[in-house]
């Protein structure tokens, strides 16, 4: 019998507050991190990645309003489609870049997102990524 | 969906919560981190960390007997509530276990084990939701 303490936790998609309007600016497929300032106590507030070292546990999959987003957690059990920030080679490790896109370059201490399952021709292509957590160690 | 009869090598593996052995009752440690210390031959034997920044795999969610606990794996697909240490945490902070199995800010140093990211701010004794993303920090 699971403990009641975990009754407020949830598996899979989560509704989050957004630090900015990601509906009008069409940020579906972008990576987000948890913001330090919460809009309310019931759910995280998320914001687009600002640096390559940011840990981004979610990708935005829907924008029901200008102040909320639905996020899918990055888990190795499910691949995700992300917006590329440049050309990516299938099989290569990739990481987040400033602005929330996924990039082909990983420097030391960058937050790895996963491995590209297909190639991206260039910026704003959709690319399937198999998530694996970790920091890239050059 | 594949059946276990096809992938018979995995027929004894299990997804989600598992019963583990423990040396003595951990009824007072629900919501604490736990890590694998050995194996009794049937299942892992776990303990609450006595050192900060060691790799933890589970959070204790129930203690049905004095020698068993129910543990929930740290899975990025599901947030999990963990009891917070005295210093507290802030939302968005990288977190780890402290030297008593409680939630604390990650040391952030090479070799430290990161458990995840706090989804809420939390104070001493509160059960803070954490988004697991376990990993070692490198040099």
What's the story with the biggest beta sheet of chain A?
A: 5 strands, mixed, barrel
Q: Report the mean per-residue pLDDT of chain B as an integer.
A: 90
Q: What fraction strand of chain B?
A: 35-45%
Number of helices of chain A: 0
How much helix, percentage-wise, in residues of chain A?
under 10%
Rg of chain B computed from alpha carbons, rounded to a whole number of angstroms: 15 Å
Chain pair sharing the greatest interface: A-B, 36 and 36 residues
| Gross geometry of chain A | globular
Reading the helices and strands of chain A in chain order gives: EEEEEEEEEE
**E-strand count of chain B:** 10
Task: State the helical fraction of chain B.
Answer: under 10%
Distance between the termini of chain B: 41 Å
Number of domains of chain A: 2
Uncertain stretches of 5 or more adjacent residues of chain B: none
Q: Could you state the oligomeric state of the chains shown? A: heterodimer
Number of strands of chain A: 10
